[in-house]
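Customer escalation, tier 2.

The customer says the design service returned an amino acid string that "doesn't look like it belongs to this structure." They asked us to rerun it and document both sides in this ticket. The original structure tokens are below, unchanged.
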């Protein structure tokens, strides 16, 4: 009697991981992103590792890259290496938080619209069409002016919460330097997050409508399962592929939008920096001090390219049609 070889079964997600591992561009991009995120999030948190990004030192202004200032200094003597890393922290936070908000809203809105259908679907999609027509920049400006007192109070509340009563002024200033750049961007988070979910809602709606017609959904209904359980436990998990791909492609677009708004003066407020502000400052002095533009542009472009390559790799890996490869 001959031996029977039993082949182990493989799930869609295991196949996707295997295909992603074979995509060199996606893996290199993932490694590059990990390095950049580590440098921007962890290194500024190490006491004494970086120079104060906002400390002015006029005798050392406009110095090129050197051993003491790896990326040089600007026209106020501030260390560009510290400003690039702390600015990257803000740009990455904007991309991640805003994308999380927009994807969460878009997935819920599109899933309910696609599952319920009928007049509810028509009304919800007409609301999406109306929001698509709103002028984005005007909304950002209005929210910024309206929420400015609220963001100031929020900053003070968080700083007081993170420090003990009677803490030293130096300690309070260090905490404020971490908190204030993020809290001042709350209007930007709200504006981008509440308007950038429109596309993903349409994608999820189409996916849900397609999956809802399959036999396993009918079987779940015949078993008497509730609508919420069917939608969120059975239908949505089968739409995660497009959602994950869209998320990885949304983060760079949001970061680019933040850079554009900061370039126009609608984003991070001085003396704090983001990659958009640093690129703006470098563009104004690119002829005399080219390093002011080169280093923030290098980090920003590398991050955008890496996210796009990773998104393309995930799209190919999660495509069931590529399972035969």
């Amino acid at each position: 009697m001959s031996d029977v070889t039993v082949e182990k079964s493989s799930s869609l997600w295991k196949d996707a991981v295997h295909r992603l591992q074979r995509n060199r561009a996606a893996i290199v991009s993932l490694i590059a992103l990990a390095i950049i995120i580590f440098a921007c999030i962890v290194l500024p948190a190490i006491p004494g590792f970086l120079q104060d990004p906002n400390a002015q030192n006029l005798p050392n202004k406009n110095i090129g890259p050197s051993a003491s200032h790896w990326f040089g200094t600007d026209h106020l003597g501030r260390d560009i290496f510290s400003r690039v890393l702390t600015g990257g922290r803000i740009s990455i936070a904007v991309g991640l938080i805003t994308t999380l908000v927009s994807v969460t809203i878009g997935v819920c809105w599109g899933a309910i619209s696609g599952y319920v259908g009928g007049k509810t679907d028509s009304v919800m999609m007409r609301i999406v069409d109306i929001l698509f027509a709103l002028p984005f920049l005007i909304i950002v400006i209005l929210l910024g002016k309206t929420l400015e007192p609220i963001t100031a109070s929020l900053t003070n509340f968080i700083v007081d919460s993170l420090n003990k009563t009677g803490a030293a002024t130096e300690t309070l200033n260090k905490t404020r330097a971490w908190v204030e750049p993020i809290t001042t961007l709350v209007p930007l988070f709200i504006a981008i997050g509440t308007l950038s979910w429109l596309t993903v809602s349409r994608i999820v709606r189409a996916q849900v409508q397609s999956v809802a017609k399959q036999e396993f959904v009918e079987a779940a209904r015949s078993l008497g399962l509730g609508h919420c359980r069917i939608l969120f436990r059975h239908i949505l998990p089968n739409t995660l592929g497009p959602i994950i791909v869209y998320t990885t492609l949304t983060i760079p677009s949001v970061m680019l939008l933040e850079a554009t708004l900061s370039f126009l003066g609608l984003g991070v407020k001085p003396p704090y920096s983001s990659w958009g502000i640093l690129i703006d400052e470098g563009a104004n002095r690119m002829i005399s001090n080219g390093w002011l533009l080169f280093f923030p542009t290098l980090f920003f472009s590398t991050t955008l390219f890496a996210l796009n390559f990773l998104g393309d790799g995930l799209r190919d890996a999660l495509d069931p049609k590529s399972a035969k490869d």
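Tier 2 assessment: The sequence is consistent with the input. The chain is about 70% helix and 0% strand. The chain has one domain: 36-54+68-324. Sent an explanation to the customer and offered a walkthrough call.
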